[in-house]
Design a protein that fits this description.
With 459 residues, the chain is an alpha/beta fold. It contains 16 helices and ten strands. The protein has a four-stranded parallel β-sheet, sandwiched between helices. Strands 1-2 form a two-stranded antiparallel sheet. The chain has a two-stranded antiparallel ribbon with strand order 7-8. The radius of gyration is 25 Å and the shape is globular.
Amino acid sequence: MIRIFNHYVSRVGIILLLMEMLILQAAAAMTSLIWVGEAHRPLDLYFSALAFALINVFCMSTLGLYQQQGREDLRTVLARMAPAFVLGFALLSLLMHMIPTIQFGRAGGLAFVLGGVGVLLTRMVMLKSSGASMMADRLIVVGDGALARECLDLAASPCGPRRFDVIGCVAVPGEASCVPAAKVLPPGESLLSLARRHAATELVVSVSDRRSGAYPVRELLDCALGGVRVTDAAKFFEREASQIRVDSLQPSYLIFGGGFDQSFLRATVKRTFDLAASAAICLAALPVMLVAALCIVLEDGGPVIFRQERVGKDGRRFQVLKFRSMGPDAERDGQPRWATAGDPRVTRVGHWLRKLRIDELPQMINVFRGEMSFVGPRPERAYFVEQLGREIAYYDVRHSIKPGITGLAQVRYQYGASVDDAIRKLQYDLYYVKNNSLFLDLLILIDTVQVVISGKGAR
């Protein structure tokens, strides 16, 4: 993994993206040279090829082709590539009408064929190489308690960006074992010799009680000095799952772990991004919003806009604006409740507004007012904030920045409808609060497009 602006990105994913950018540019340049020939100026040729590559990489990103690479089969890759290239063709055609210097003659289809074949061959090579054991990182987990079990589950998850070969767990006295007995390594050998014998590249320390005499401080130091990477379990989850775990989180990790950029420069960049993204989406989605408003009125004649008090930055309350997706008397008893799957309060029009995330569009007004950001933790109702604040440690940390229309938790996890869901989403929110940057905002924006297209997580 490489860290770009505090966010961890798969090294394989970066290499794959750069290779496919070059392949797509080469396909576009070859097509232009063959069809247009010398009449095509070199600068126009370069920008045409670059536009072709960027549009197709963006479309592949929105279809999830740069997530979980190496974990999917060829059929799944093809199922994502086909609509991505169709979308790319539509966007490129539109761009060619807007910018005359971008041109491919009548052979634009050939560029897509050559580019598609090149990308597919690259993916086949990556799929084959990623299945090789030499591509897997070899881990030893220090500890065999509940946290060690979570580390094993994460390492074995098919949704992660990397493959791991877990050698086993080293039992630590005083911890109740929660891992399978077959995963516990036999005692009597130092951590360094164990790591060297099994060619381990990393030790993940999952010991919860680090003040006891059983904590192997000296052995871990020997491993670090001996060239074996030693990683805290909290850092392992942050790096591999974009989560900061609250069940085993120490305050010192938040205090000394870096991040939490609230500088004037970051605030200025974020506000500029908020205004630019919101204005662009408002203009592009204006026809959709007008149709949505008309459908709401035609269905039951009720109000179009729904206002509800939410908690924002520093605990300040504001009125969030959404297209109404439930009946006018959804909470006739005045008791706040979570939205559930197949909620009967949702109207027929509201079902589609929620599925396509159209109900969130009026929140652009909240962004223009400065009450929300485009990207950030989801704003919750005061009733739930008070409840969750009492039950979940560090819950109020998410209120140190403005809430967002979309966010890391919204694109990585389903719609929250319980305290347990709130804990899981908080782990993503804490990661975002700690590591937020323009780069991460752009990645979340691309993931949001994918969520909207697939309709995942809507209720």
